[in-house]
Write a structure and sequence with these properties.
The complex is a heterodimer of chains A (about 325) and B (about 200). Chain A is mainly α. In chain A, about 60% of the residues lie in helices and about 0% in strands. Chain B has one domain. A two-stranded antiparallel ribbon of chain B has the order 1-2. Chain B starts with a helix and ends with a helix.
Chain lengths: ~325, ~200
């Protein structure tokens, strides 16, 4: 009686992966960078991260209750949004900045569109864009690393923007995160560690991060210097939020193209826009805006990079 | 009389030009920065809608069907010019604040929309009440949007501080904030309508 024939509909092969496990693995991959940020900027960074995560989860619950939808905060996406948002904030921002940002991210960035899987734009970046447009004075005041008493310091990109070369910051410092910036973007080494973990677990593919960073580097090499082909590309790609954006925000499943070909177009577009904003735009950093702009182009990219259905021409 | 009251009331809620018909959004986005501007814009638009509705309704037999749109525009433009000159003469600061959006009432879809859809088919009295209702609906919508934007974008209402210590969200005062607020209000009113069914 044990070998009954089981009849079921496809798919017959199952994987252990689910939305839950992927979200929590991405959170895990973000952990090293958060630890590095807290080490660099002190308890203020930890406070900002905690407030952002808690308020995202609360906002998710509250909005789903208000709209009478099934509560889904346990799938980890709200925690991930809060985490990513806080990584995009300066450590010493007032306590309400992460809270307001998390609410905007969840309410306007995600739930208005119908929740996880329906949003056009990366929710964390929507929150950040709103905060930057609303309270620029708090969002651009960066503190120096390893000085827990809030001495402000210009970020490397702001220095690059003013044509001051950043010889006083070595490449090693840029790589390890000993520089001014947002909580989660400073330590490239930790971000790379998390990114390689995600690549190894096949949660993200190499297409978006590699093309994104390569195109930004190339553009900054060509146009970033005083003459053509003399830009200091290494400091351009090691500073700012490029690694955070390329590995963790541009690769968001919901807001990135489906096919590998589309992902290459998406990554290249992000890189191009980031370099344009950094070199000629009004802001020193353009990662968040370029990802948001390319998010808007994703439906179009998906349409033009559709795979041929087997058997058709 | 009951019918006239209905024509008046429909403009405020059931066929609100901004939130239901979604007409005339350009001036709505542009002038809803402060409640003062909103009231000025609302009054000027109401004046134009009411006057053009009455004139067009009384001329509807004289206007040939094929060239009715140019005829409507001539009538509307006349009243816009009157409104603009009045603003310039008696309320110069208001005129400066509203700027180009006063002459642009000519191309406001609400005015032409009411002329085409209502005044050219109904009696003078009904058109008068329709115009007052639509103008009131537009003004109320503008006041609602601008009150939210002024409070959140500058922390003030009518120039008076509402919440001391509140740090205004500059994004709400920018054009992007207007789109955001109008979108959220539209969604809110649609949700209420769905629930009421």
């Amino acid at each position: 009686m044990n070998n009954k024939l089981i009849v079921s509909t496809s798919p017959h092969l199952h994987t252990k992966e689910s939305v839950n496990s992927i979200m929590w693995l991405v959170c895990l991959a973000l952990l090293p960078s958060g630890i590095a940020g807290v080490y660099m900027f002190g308890p203020a960074a930890l406070r900002a991260i905690a407030i952002a995560v808690v308020s995202s989860v609360v906002a998710e619950f509250a909005i789903q209750a208000a709209l009478k939808k099934k509560a889904s905060a346990s799938d980890g996406s709200a925690v991930l949004t809060g985490l990513l948002l806080s990584y995009n904030l300066p450590a010493h921002c007032p306590f309400w900045i992460p809270a307001v940002g998390a609410f905007v991210a969840i309410a306007i960035g995600k739930q208005i569109f119908g929740g996880l899987g329906q949003n056009i734009f990366n929710p964390a970046l929507v929150g950040r864009a709103f905060l930057t447009a609303s309270w620029p004075q708090h969002m651009t005041r960066f503190t120096a690393p390893l000085s827990y008493d809030a001495i402000t310091q210009a970020t490397p990109l702001a220095l690059l923007k003013e044509n001051k070369m950043i010889e006083q910051i070595s490449y090693l410092d840029l790589f390890l995160g000993n520089k001014g910036g947002c909580i989660g973007e400073v330590c490239v080494a930790a971000l790379l560690l998390g990114g390689i973990f995600l690549l190894a677990r096949r949660i993200i593919s190499w297409h978006i991060p590699v093309t994104y960073i390569a195109v930004t580097g190339l553009m900054c090499f060509i146009f970033g210097g005083k003459t053509l082909f003399s830009g200091n590309w290494l400091s351009y790609i090691l500073s700012g939020g490029l690694f955070l954006g390329a590995f963790f925000m541009a690769t968001d499943y919901v807001t990135s193209p489906l096919t590998h070909k589309g992902q290459i177009v998406f990554g290249a577009g992000c890189g191009l826009l980031t370099a344009i904003i950094r070199l000629w735009g009004g802001y020193p950093e353009g990662v968040s805006y370029s990802i948001l702009m390319m998010n808007a182009a994703v439906p179009l990219i998906d349409r033009y990079t559709k795979k041929r259905i087997f058997g058709t021409r | 009389m009951k019918r006239l009251i209905k024509e008046f009331a429909k403009g405020i809620i059931r066929e609100n030009p901004t939130f239901v018909l979604a007409l005339g959004l350009c001036p709505t986005l542009a002038v809803s920065v402060s409640v003062g501007n909103a009231v000025g814009m609302g009054c000027a638009s109401t004046f134009v809608i009411v006057c053009s509705n009455v004139i067009i309704a009384s001329l509807k037999k004289l206007i040939p069907d094929k060239i009715r749109i140019p005829c409507f525009i001539v009538v509307i433009a006349t009243f816009v010019t009157i409104a603009e000159m009045t603003l310039k003469a008696y309320f110069p600061p208001m005129n400066r604040a509203l700027g180009i959006y006063v002459p642009l009432i000519v191309v406001n879809c609400i005015v032409l929309g009411r002329a085409e859809a209502f005044a050219s088919k109904n009696t003078v009295i009904a058109s008068l009440f329709d115009g007052i209702g639509m103008g009131a609906g537009f003004t109320l919508a503008l006041i609602l949007i601008s009150a939210i934007r002024e409070m959140m974008g500058t922390g003030k209402l009518f120039g008076l501080t509402v919440f001391p210590g509140f740090e205004p969200a500059l994004a709400i005062g920018m054009p992007s904030g207007a789109l955001l607020i109008i979108g959220l209000l539209l969604g809110f009113f649609n949700t209420i309508k769905e629930r009421a069914k």
